[in-house]
């Protein structure tokens, strides 16, 4: 069995990367890990030249990457959550897989698993990736999400910025409690004078959230890897 892992995270040694690699390591299969930010895969341009050939005509790294996809028995895709959606790297990759779908549904029967890491919308991202791969004929054997490190933790002015992630997802702005405060209570203290989109005020208790420090999260990745192995 061959299993291909594809990460849409541009961050070096990211939580997304770690979880994909944890899935791969427990498949017991021949595996390969590809980081989309290190290669060139642009978006679909809707030229429809792949309809009868099932080959995308755009001359970039998708040419060889698509061959790896077709050679794999299973694929594990993962993305961070940007603006409530998958990264542009992952969107472009999944769009380009459309070339393998036309007429012949060439990816039918392949196994797939999804990983999404975010602050509040990661479940929607995992669902979107799963639905997209399922539409291409793949069978989703596992899907998981995890909380990641908000960009505000590392950008510099995060503690005093009026427009931080936790303010964007606050009940005052969204009308609902998305659980950000509870999820990051060990990492972030929102101070009493914080007013979303008016006055940012917080204190960082930890600057980075690593899935490697969360045994239940890593165990879930390993469980998904074992599910793939059982299908060999």
Automatic annotation (TrEMBL):
<dbReference type="InterPro" id="IPR051796">
    <property type="entry name" value="ISF_SsuE-like"/>
</dbReference>
<dbReference type="Pfam" id="PF03358">
    <property type="entry name" value="FMN_red"/>
</dbReference>
<dbReference type="GO" id="GO:0016491">
    <property type="term" value="F:oxidoreductase activity"/>
</dbReference>
<feature type="domain" description="NADPH-dependent FMN reductase-like">
    <location>
        <begin position="1"/>
        <end position="121"/>
    </location>
</feature>
<dbReference type="InterPro" id="IPR029039">
    <property type="entry name" value="Flavoprotein-like_sf"/>
</dbReference>
<keyword id="KW-0288">FMN</keyword>
<protein>
    <submittedName>
        <fullName>NADPH-dependent FMN reductase</fullName>
    </submittedName>
</protein>
<keyword id="KW-0285">Flavoprotein</keyword>
<dbReference type="InterPro" id="IPR005025">
    <property type="entry name" value="FMN_Rdtase-like_dom"/>
</dbReference>
<comment type="similarity">
    <text>Belongs to the SsuE family. Isf subfamily.</text>
</comment>
